[in-house]
Amino acid sequence: MHRLSILCLSVAVLLTINNVAVSQPLDPVESARMEVEAALNLTPDVDNGRKVYMVCTVCHSPEGWGRPDGRYPQIAGQLPNVTIKQLADIRARNRDNPTMRPFTSPQLLGGAKEIADVAAYIAQLPMNPNNSVGPGLDLEFGAKVYKENCEDCHGKNGEGNQAEHTPRIQGQHVSYLKRQFHWIRIGKRRNADQKMVKQIHRFTPREENAVLDYVSRLKPPAEHLAAPGWQNPDFPKYYRGSGY
Ligand code: HEC
Ligand code: HEC
Questions:
Q1: What is the pLDDT of residues 180-237, one digit of tens each?
Q2: Of 94, 166, 183, which is best to mutate to test ligand 2, by the most ligand atoms within 8 angstroms of its C-beta?
Q3: Are residues 33 and 119 in the same domain?
Q4: Which single residue of 23, 126, 195, 216 has CA 20 to 30 Å from 46?
Q5: For the CA of 176, the nearest atom of ligand 1
Q6: Mean pLDDT, the chain, as a whole number?
Q7: Domain limit, last residue, from 84, 114, 130
Q8: Helix (H) / strand (E) containing 212
Q9: Contact indicator for 150, 68 with CB cutoff of 8 Å
Q10: Which residues pair with 16 in a beta bridge?
């Protein structure tokens, strides 16, 4: 009788501990940080990354070049650490992306290994040579604003910084740049860099438009650019519809 009640008690305690673990998941920032760390410690397998990328082609297309209207960003050529952080943040709900989030579930995307692999695959995709740009009316001012406010972090030519997971922003579609910039500024993009938020919070519309037009025109180096009209041979069966 005595033994039985001890047993019951231990089962009850175990159940409670288990329950606590289940009902209190890690907070988004912490779980994303752990996943980034795990992915960064792996040696990526580009060939497996190509297989993982299959599900991404649905929206990002085989080339990863994004759409001129900015609905989908160019992700081709992005620095691996940046892609890893964005994927971890999106799936942990540390960056809102309701369209894409279901595709980042462990069932569809996998774990840290698949994240590292797909990031390496995306990094080696040649970039869009014809991204959409702004009207080009205030570029001298845009260059000045860039030099004074962005260059230190995003690099002289918008090439980004792998160690600091600062995105490559050169050659990105201008409408996407505008949306992200605005979301970072108003705090809608929760994973934003707080120093960047401070840097831009007093920007006038003229500064914002000029600098993003300038950024969209920063050309990635020739070795990262595809020939116009290039199609990714890794996905020969991808259905491009009649518009392509
Ligand atoms: C259902 C459509 C859809 C699918 C499938 C999808 N994405 Fe996305 N993805 C989006 C949209 C939309 C955005 C831009 C969201 C925004 O504006 O913040 C995005 C943004 C991203 C970004 C952030 C880019 C940046 O510059 O910050 C990365 C990285 C990314 N996707 C990678 C992937 C990968 C890898 C896969 C496959 C595992 C994938 N996506 C599957 C729709 C999708
Ligand atoms: C203190 C460093 C810093 C400064 C200054 C800074 N940024 Fe950023 N920026 C970042 C980091 C880091 C991120 C990525 C944050 C994250 O998601 O982890 C980012 C993200 C972005 C993004 C989103 C890119 C994407 O692919 O989603 C844009 C656009 C951007 N910055 C443009 C600018 C511009 C233009 C300026 C100057 C007016 C600027 N930034 C100044 C560090 C900086």
A1: 999 999 999 999 999 999 999 999 999 999 999 999 999 999 999 999 889 999 999 9
A2: 166
A3: yes
A4: 216
A5: 17
A6: 90
A7: 130
A8: helix 205-216
A9: no
A10: none
